[in-house]
Design brief:
The protein is built from 11 helices and 13 strands. By secondary structure, it is α/β, with parallel strands linked by helices. The protein has a 6-stranded mixed β-sheet with strand order 8-7-4-9-10-11, sandwiched between helices. Strands 1-2-13 form a 3-stranded antiparallel β-sheet. It has a two-stranded antiparallel ribbon with strand order 3-12. A hairpin with a 2-residue loop joins strand 5 and strand 6. The longest helix is centred in the N-terminal third of the chain and has 28 residues.
Length: 344
């Protein structure tokens, strides 16, 4: 039959669906009620009865018959539209296949006061460390379409700036809006990593995460960036890194800044590269050293390759509900029916 229909109408009918098709069984209920419910018994009234044929021949009878037909039409329209709305008509349209990896990545970023230091270059200008990290970090996050990514900010305290989500644009926006001082100015590396581990989904993602075969676990990783040494918080960074290993979560650490504690020469707020390296090794991850913006770009590309391997996930159907249209028709029919009964 589709060969006799226009292409657009055939495509529309093939995409049409009902959420509750069994509701359509209620359509003949008024007819069944009219047949099964007995009519009011005649008699018992003192009113004068006039033969129907005589009434029909008068103008008043014709008007009454026309109103009766309109009310019957409105009543049936109301009932059919109401049943149609309750059946949940909708259009089902397949979405394009999206890249999926089954990976869950938390980014833990140092937001201590030392991130205000202006010793990085960007577009030919000297900028502070946070500005360089935002530029490279937001680009990295947007490239991870198909991953479940979240963001943890740490300084004196750690907090979740963006819960793990497939909405990489929202996570990138949260990173871009991060402000120094909102959680203090010290550096609690252990607490930052600990919160990132807690926010990674503890369940096996086999059968739930896109891109993961049944029975497999989703790959989980934390990317931790710091430009200082742990001097705040309640947990030791190395102990939390050992916990990450027990949980099967890799930790990639990024030591940011031109100077290390080993050659600080009394300089304050320099990065503890050794501790960050030990944390990465303890968890089975890798440690990276960043002194310039170019180093930061190379590290982002390296982690992107290490946590790569995305594939196309099966497309998910998108449903557009159509029930408001028959519901509006039912409401309009009810209003007209009520007005006709009041003689309007």
């Amino acid at each position: 039959m589709s060969g006799f229909l226009p292409a657009w109408l055939s495509a529309l009918l093939s995409a049409f669906d009902l959420a509750a098709p069994w509701v359509l069984l209620a359509l003949p209920l008024p007819l069944l009620a009219a047949r099964l419910i007995p009519a009011e018994p005649e008699g018992g009234s003192g009113a004068l009865r006039v033969p129907a044929t005589l009434v029909a021949g008068t103008r008043a009878g014709a008007d009454r018959a026309a109103r009766g037909r309109r009310r019957a039409l409105l009543t049936w329209t109301l009932w059919i539209a109401l049943v149609a709305a309750l059946s949940g008509p909708r259009l089902v349209m397949p979405a394009a296949a999206l890249p999926a990896s089954g990976r869950e990545i938390m980014i833990a970023m140092d937001l201590s006061g030392s991130m205000e230091r202006r010793d990085f270059a960007l577009d030919g200008e000297t900028v502070n460390r946070l500005t360089a990290v935002k530029r490279v970090g937001t680009d990295f996050i947007r490239r991870r379409a198909g991953d479940r990514i979240g963001l943890v900010i740490f300084a004196d305290q750690a907090y979740v700036a963006a819960a793990p989500s497939f909405d990489t644009a929202a996570v990138a926006r949260a990173l871009d809006e991060a402000t120094i001082g909102i959680s203090g100015r010290s550096t609690g590396i252990g607490d930052g990593l600990g919160l990132a581990l807690r926010r990674l989904d503890p369940r096996d993602a086999g059968g739930e995460a896109a891109g993961v075969r049944p029975g497999e676990k989703a790959a989980k990783a934390v990317i931790l960036l710091s430009d200082g040494a742990n001097n705040a918080g309640q947990t030791a960074p190395k102990d939390v890194a050992e916990l990450a290993k027990e949980l099967g979560i890799k930790v990639y650490t990024i030591a940011l800044g031109p100077r290390d504690m080993a050659d600080a020469d009394g300089e304050q707020d320099v990065v503890d590269t050794e501790t960050l390296r030990d944390m990465a090794r303890a968890s089975g991850g890798e440690a990276f050293r960043v002194r310039t913006t170019d180093d930061l770009v190379r590290v982002a590309d390296a982690i992107d390759r290490l946590e790569g391997g995305r594939a196309l996930a099966p497309p998910l159907p998108l449903r557009r509900d159509l029930w408001p249209w028959p519901a509006a028709l039912a409401f309009l029919s009810a209003a007209l029916l009520l007005a006709s009964r009041r003689g309007v």
